[in-house]
Design a protein that fits this description.
The protein has 13 helices and 16 strands. It is of the alpha/beta class. It folds into three domains: 46 residues, no CATH class; 186 residues, Mur-like, catalytic domain (UDP-N-acetylmuramoyl-L-alanine:D-glutamate ligase), CATH 3.40.1190; 145 residues, Mur ligase, C-terminal domain (Protein-Tyrosine Phosphatase, Chain A, Alpha-Beta Complex). Helix 3 packs across helix 8 and helix 12 runs parallel beside helix 13. The protein is globular.
Length: 399
């Protein structure tokens, strides 16, 4: 027969949605919380004090799907989880399985189509999803890597790790992706991934990886293989890898143009919302004009400062652009504060680029912000799309 449903928001804009402050939560059977809402929010705290259970999207989804006879693979981590999630689902479909991906990637879990018994749900789970998990039983859990992120939400690295741990505290086979010592220490923690398998990216060397270039993608591929190898052959896996189309906004080649004798490649890496993620792109190209900045994370440029050898100039943007510019200038990098993406392309049009292009006469214009997008854009996708639009205009008018 169902139960009465109340929708609320901090700033309701629809007549049938009420303000969270006006909700009498004490009489509720349950509070269903969107992942983006902080666990410390007033309404959530009032529910806990009243003994009202607080559930998230994944908990509801699991209650509806746990008897489907399908398998569930969960993917979390700081960087790479979207690519790993999409790749796992793709190779499974290539092998003939019914498989869908979603959660933090694309389709919310509650909107995923039902798969057949024996099929797979592949869920990307952010720390916001993980921190409130109560009953999800995974067949395989993947932890790609761990670097500082979302610390404003979780307080510190211990809080961030505790949120991620929730995915592994509910059972299932466990896999840890990153081969660095810090991740091995995480993997060895009792209660997180005891007896975990550390995915070995060396197994990817010499393989045809299709469009998944770079050492970070070697690790992503290794994680995906560990997730699916119980259900498919290695030959079938590699056929799937070779037909996988990399996700947008992740070291995405946009266009090439020759201008004044200089060959310029444009690369959209808008998903690089922290310094650790930007490192991979900065190490993958030579003669880089680096477009960076936005809403800074707590560690600023972070690990990106260790990967500046190929940067010819940094064009800084957004709320942290002046801070990034000051920090990079102190490290000997030429900088220009452009404020917006439009300003960066104005800079490109007005500058003779031949002195940066080296003997080969080649440059890479790389958007890899090492910062969140929320100061100027709704999300990293909107930022990357705007970059691509500006590239199209630049190429069309290149002289």
């Amino acid at each position: 027969a169902g139960v009465p449903l109340v929708l609320c928001d901090d700033e309701p804009k629809e007549n049938n949605i009420i303000a969270a402050r006006d909700v009498d939560v004490a009489g509720a059977q349950a509070l269903i919380k969107s992942p983006g809402i902080d666990m410390r929010a007033d309404l959530v705290m009032r529910a806990k004090e009243a003994g009202v259970p607080v559930y998230g999207e994944i908990d509801l989804w699991w209650r509806a799907r746990r008897h489907d006879g399908a398998r569930v693979i969960g993917v979390t981590g700081t960087n790479g989880k979207s690519t790993v999630t999409a790749l796992i689902a793709h190779v499974l479909r290539c092998a003939g399985y019914d498989a869908v991906e979603g959660g933090n990637l694309g389709t919310p879990a509650l909107a995923l189509s039902r798969v057949k018994a024996g099929g797979f749900y592949v869920l990307e789970l952010s720390s916001y999803h993980c921190e409130m998990l109560q009953g999800l039983a995974l067949d395989v859990g993947i932890f790609t890597n761990l670097t500082p992120d979302h610390l404003a939400r979780h307080g510190d690295m211990a809080g961030y790790l505790a949120a991620k741990r929730r995915m592994f505290e509910v059972g299932g086979r466990r896999e840890a992706g990153d081969e660095r010592p810090a991740m091995k220490a995480v993997a060895g923690e009792a209660g997180l991934v005891e007896g975990a398998i550390i995915a070995d990216s060396h197994s990817v060397e010499g393989r045809d990886v299709g469009g998944l270039l770079g050492p970070h993608n070697a690790q992503n591929i290794a994680c995906a293989w560990e997730a699916v190898k119980a259900w498919m052959t290695e030959e079938g896996f590699w056929r799937g890898v070779q037909t996988f189309r990399p996700l947008s906004h992740r070291m995405e080649h946009v266009a090439d143009v020759v201008r004044n004798g200089v060959s310029i490649s444009f690369v959209n890496d808008s998903k690089a919302t922290n310094g650790d993620s930007a490192v991979w792109a900065l190490r993958s190209f030579k003669n880089i004009i680096w477009i960076c900045g936005g809403q800074a994370k707590s560690d600023g440029l972070g690990a990106a400062v260790k990967a500046l050898d190929n940067v010819k100039v940094a064009l800084t943007l957004g709320a942290c652009g002046e801070d990034f510019g000051r920090d990079l200038k102190a490290l000997g990098i030429e900088t220009a504060y452009c404020e917006t993406l439009e300003g960066a392309f104005d800079w490109l049009r007005g500058r003779d680029l031949t002195d940066m292009a080296g003997d080969a006469g080649e440059l890479a214009v790389l958007l890899s912000p090492a910062a969140a997008s929320w100061d100027q854009f709704a999300n990293f996708e909107a930022r990357g799309d705007r970059f691509k639009d500006l590239v199209v205009d630049f190429v069309a008018n290149a002289a």
